Amino acid sequence: MEQQIITDISLTARILGAAFYYPPTENNDIVELLSSGNWIVEWPYGNDKEKQGIAKLLEQTTLNDETLAQAYQRLFIGPYALPAPPWGSVYLDNENVLFGNSTLDLREWMLENGIDIALTQNEPEDHFGLVVMMVAWIAETRPEKLNELLAEHLLPWAYRYLEKLSLQGAFPYYEGLATLATLTLKNWQSVLNVTPAQKQLFC
């Protein structure tokens, strides 16, 4: 696999994974990068028109007095029902549960491949942001496992999640982030020639 492909995947996965997983208050550098538009020149995927459209959404970090931190709370934490839950098992389990069979499958795959995530609380490993950060780590350390991770544990549900976040999140920055992630995942899929596993979606 070409080193440039690995470098591009690692860089974009680190940025996107952190942007989805960490609260904006803990992620100032990435929020500043994405909302400033300075990422456009360096982002290896998409054409200028696509990236400029996404940048216009990412610039909008407040909407109707809702701050970015408040939007993160609403979209990723609660207390009310999340419009687009970021965990794979919600989409892949017919009862839309956390810690479903797909989470256990990912956990088993991680054990088999010596991957240990230091989680600070009891939470599912199949959070979109966590899995995308795992993509970066696998690209850097075990690139031969990259297709397997994407095909089995991320791509079967990720596009549905990102579509829901974009359409139902009701906040421009996260709509832009979902659109950038969709563009990026499609390019990973293309450059690596990944065929996602066919799995039924329930959400």
How would you characterize the overall build of this protein?
Helix content is 61%, strand content 2%. A two-stranded antiparallel sheet has the order 1-2. The chain is globular, with a radius of gyration of 16 Å. The chain is an all-alpha fold and 203 residues long. Helix 1 packs antiparallel against helix 7, helix 3 (48-58) packs antiparallel against helix 9 (172-192) and helix 8 runs antiparallel to helix 9. The protein has 9 helices and 2 strands.
Could you name the key traits of this structure?
9 helices, 61% helix, mainly alpha, 2 strands, 203 residues, two-stranded antiparallel ribbon
Structural topology:
Elements: H1 3-21, H2 28-36, H3 48-58, E1 62-63, E2 66-67, H4 68-77, H5 88-92, H6 101-112, H7 128-141, H8 146-168, H9 172-192
Antiparallel strand pairs: 1-2
Helix pairs in contact: 1-7, 1-9, 3-9, 7-8, 8-9
| Structural shape | globular
Number of helices: 9
Q: What can be said about the biggest beta sheet?
A: 2 strands, antiparallel
Helix content: 55-70%
**Mean pLDDT rating:** 96
Q: Give the percentage of residues in beta strands.
A: under 5%
Low-confidence stretches: none
Distance between the termini: 35 Å
Please identify the oligomeric state.
single chain
The string of secondary-structure elements, in order, is HHHEEHHHHHH
The side-by-side strand order for the widest beta sheet comes to 1-2
Total number of β-strand segments?
2
